[in-house]
Write a structure and sequence with these properties.
This protein folds into 2 domains: 180 residues, no CATH class; 255 residues, Alpha-Beta Barrel (TIM Barrel), CATH 3.20.20. Helix content is 60%, strand content 9%. The protein has 11 helices and 10 strands. The two termini are 47 Å apart.
Length: 504
């Protein structure tokens, strides 16, 4: 009894039926996970809103207390400052008034004395005439006594006027200073209240922004956790199906090992590879052997790198690929940066051989829309690789240079195993890491070793079924991979050629 007959007896349904059943189960699990996340997000939003309101009320109460305390402190400060300013202003005013009044009194005194001298002189003449019989000595005594009495009376009168003028001036100044200080105090209080309200508003907005950012971060983490859980389930399902040999084959081949973009953590190790291209004769020989083995069972052929457009003879490879696989889809996987510089002969070769241009969008200064219009102008198929949006993150396929990992578990969880089949020098690999990891050894001196058991010779294989059976099993190289530590949301950047980009 053949293997297929045994497999049909063990599985009472077809492979497509099993795939449809598992897809339906996966869809149901994803829907349930999405509903659970929505309910968790609603509960988290309500809890965060309640916490935000509580924190906001506490902050407002704290700010009210601070404003009240600072208001009392300002009142005490401004009261003390007002008294000191009033004393200084009063002393300055008294000094100025006394100086002014003294000067004015002296002037008035001199005028009164001059007037008195005139009166005295007039009266003296009259007295001389009247008291012609009195002696000059008596006249002098009477004159001196009269002068002293007049001066004393004027001095007393001027002192009284000075005292009244000083009191009136002090009262007016004190009233004016009090009004001015009260106005300043109110202005300062209003300014302080405005500043405190602005600070409260700014702190409230900052608090809301932080809480919103934290909520988005938590939601992002929960979404990533769900994505990883779904990816884990997918990988388990993929791992289950990878153990069944395929009936159709898709494979890839690198036209250039190096790259002009050098993405961080590239799983082809292109940032570490020197400029090199696949030999056209070897390419033709290997493709004809693959065509003899698989023929119309070849579903898709990817021409990639590195960056395949760096190969200046790319036009010569395209008709060879189409001749060998007339019904397969042939795709050039590129970063697209060199498309505007390609010669018209390249576009004609793509159109004549029905080649699909499949660029990946990277967050670089490049007009992908213009490149798409250029392809349309030559009537060449143009389809973005993986997704139409810009790839802002990358997946890190971490390696363990010690080679201490579980081959079976890594193969079961690996997305590339038996999906990114790589052709190099007449041998097929279940993934592109095994045949290109030697570039890491050359750059960093690591000891990651490839063995003959990691690939199958297409010239030694007896049939396509033997190759498909080999590709559906783990290889010894799987011990170097850490599928359990794969990180799929690292921000994209260009490589710095550091060992940490490819290891744990």
């Amino acid at each position: 009894m053949s293997f297929k007959q045994k497999l049909k007896m063990r599985l009472p349904f077809t492979r497509k039926g099993l795939e449809d059943y598992l897809d339906e189960k996966l869809t149901l699990m994803q829907r349930q996970q999405a509903e659970n996340i929505q309910s968790n997000v609603k509960a988290l939003s309500a809890q965060l809103a309640q916490e935000i309101n509580a924190q906001l009320h506490r902050r407002i109460n704290d700010l009210d207390g601070v404003i009240a305390f600072q208001t009392e402190a300002l009142k005490a400060y401004f009261g003390q400052e007002t008294n000191e300013q009033l004393d200084r202003r009063t002393n300055d005013l008294q000094s100025a008034v006394i100086a002014h009044l003294t000067e004015e009194l002296n002037a008035q005194l001199h005028r009164r004395i001059n007037d008195l001298d005139g009166v005295i002189a007039f009266q003296t003449e009259a007295l001389k005439a009247y008291f012609s019989q009195e002696t000059n000595e008596q006249l002098d005594r009477r004159t001196n006594d009269l002068q002293s009495a007049v001066i004393a009376q004027l001095t007393e009168e001027l002192n009284a006027q000075l005292h009244r003028r000083t009191n009136d001036l002090q009262s007016a100044i004190i009233t004016q200073l009090a009004e001015e200080l009260n106005a300043q105090f109110h202005r300062r209080i209003n300014d302080l209240q405005g500043a405190m309200e602005a600070q409260v508003n700014a702190q409230t907005e900052e608090l809301f922004a932080r809480l919103k950012e934290e909520m988005n971060l938590q939601l992002h983490r929960r979404t990533n956790d769900l994505d990883r859980a779904v990816s884990s389930v997918k990988n388990e399902l993929y791992g289950f199906f990878r153990r069944f040999p395929k009936t159709m084959l898709s494979f890839e081949v690198a036209l250039a090992e190096h790259c002009n973009l050098n993405c961080v953590g590239c799983n082809h190790f292109s940032p570490l590879a020197p400029p090199s291209f696949i030999d056209l004769k070897e390419f033709t020989r290997d493709f004809r052997q693959m065509a003899d083995l698989f023929g119309e069972r070849t579903q898709q052929v990817k021409l990639l790198g590195g960056e395949p457009l760096l190969n200046r003879d790319i036009n010569k490879y395209l008709p060879v690929a189409r001749e060998c696989f007339p019904k397969a889809e042939i795709v050039i996987v590129t970063n697209g940066l060199l498309l505007p510089q390609m010669d018209p002969s390249f576009w004609e070769a793509c159109r004549e051989n029905q080649i699909v241009i499949s660029p990946t969008k990277y967050p670089v200064n490049f007009d992908y829309g213009a490149a798409e219009e250029l392809a349309k102008s030559y009537n060449v198929k143009y389809r973005y690789f993986a997704e139409k949006e810009v790839s802002r993150t990358f997946e890190k396929y971490a390696l363990d240079p010690q080679g201490l990992q579980d081959c079976e578990g890594n193969y079961r969880m690996c997305f590339m195993a038996n999906s990114c089949i790589h052709l190099l020098h007449g041998r097929l690999y279940t993934c592109p890491i095994a045949p290109t990891a030697h570039y890491m050894n050359d750059a960093f001196g690591t000891q990651i070793r490839e063995s003959p058991q990691d690939s199958i010779d297409i010239y030694q294989a007896s049939s396509a079924e033997e190759i498909l059976e080999f590709l559906a099993k783990p290889i010894p190289f799987c011990r170097y991979c850490r599928r359990d530590l794969m990180i799929d949301d690292i921000p994209w950047r260009q490589s710095k050629r550091e060992l940490s980009e490819w290891t744990v």
